[in-house]
Amino acid sequence: MPLTSDETGSGAGSDPTARYPLRIVVADDAVLLREGLVRLLAEDGHEVVAAVGDGPALVEAVLAHHPDVSIVDVRMPPTHTDDGLRAAMAARRQLPGTPVLVLSQYVEVSYAGDLLADGSGAVGYLLKDRVARIEEFLDTLNRVAHGATVLDPQVIAQLLAGQRRGKALGSLTVRERQILALMAEGCSNTAIAQRLVVSSSAVEKNIGNIFAKLGLPPDVTQHRRVLAVLTYLRG
User: Fold this and answer.
1) Which of 18, 41, 50, 71 shows the smallest number of beta carbons within 10 Å?
2) Structural domain spans, the chain
3) How many helices (H) and strands (E) does the chain have?
4) Distance, CA of 100 to CA of 141 (rounded, Å)
5) Which runs of E-coded beta strand occur in 32-122?
6) Of the options 1.10.10.10, 3.40.190.10, 3.40.50.720, 3.90.870.10, the CATH number for the domain spanning 157-234
7) Rounded to whole angstroms, how far apart are CA atoms 189 and 187?
């Protein structure tokens, strides 16, 4: 079962950096990549409970096995467009909160927005070339399984390159936008402080300001960190 994200911290109820064996579903129609992932995950101590090659099979596997996390290619049969993404979202509708890490060949900001739309976290969106960076990939997989939201830095780079932002986002300071971008990458408060060379208390204060400016008051039924990132993407 995915761990519950906390309100302003790293995203997981326990230490999201801690590694533990995961039960995983792999969905990719490219046999070589699929089998390569299965082998990589097994060597890292995880159990691949199902390896499938199309969207409907992904939904069936998730509902049958209730994995700790699923790794899903965006483009799969039957249409080879966004079938993998849509299947992942269908699985999450039937099994709310089930963690999903989506892999894509290219940056599609709209895909990231669709994936985050339910606001429940435990999702990741990475470019496929990140898989070659094995430790980075395995760390991301672990964080998503813990309930974190992790976006590929290239998605963040595109957002920072000049996409239009709404009025609320426009009210954020440069520092607040930097922190929100790092939140979208899945960074914890501690990691953000280290990246920006500031104190943890300064990060917490800025995150509080972000929540206030985006109109996200404390609410036990929703995760403000995920909603802030979603607002950032939609902006």
Assistant:
1) 18
2) 23-153, 157-234
3) 11, 6
4) 9
5) 47-52, 69-73, 100-104
6) 1.10.10.10
7) 7
Of all helices (H) and strands (E), which one includes residue 59? helix 55-65
Distance between CA atoms of residues 83 and 88, nearest Å: 9
- Show the tokens assigned to 26: 């792999």
Helix/strand/coil for 7: coil
Q: Which helix (H) or strand (E) holds 114?
A: helix 109-116
Name, in order, each residue with C-beta under 8 angstroms of 174's C-beta and a sequence gap of 6 or more: none
Q: pTM (2 decimals)?
A: 0.67
Distance CA 123, CA 163 (A): 23
Distance, CA of 58 to CA of 64 (rounded, Å) = 10
- List the pLDDT tens digit at each of the 235 positions of the chain: 322 233 333 333 445 556 789 999 999 999 999 999 999 999 999 999 999 999 999 999 999 999 999 999 998 988 888 899 999 999 999 999 899 999 988 777 677 777 777 777 889 989 888 888 899 899 999 999 999 888 888 877 665 554 444 567 778 899 999 999 899 888 899 999 999 999 999 999 999 999 888 888 776 455 778 778 877 776 6
CATH topology (fold) of 23-153? Rossmann fold (3.40.50)
In SS3 terms, 198-233 reads as CCHHHHHHHHHHHHHHCCCCCCCCCCHHHHHHHHHH
Q: Quote the tokens at residue 2.
A: 């995915």
Q: Is the peptide bond before 78 cis (omega within 30 degrees of 0)?
A: yes
DSSP-derived 3-state class of residue 16: coil
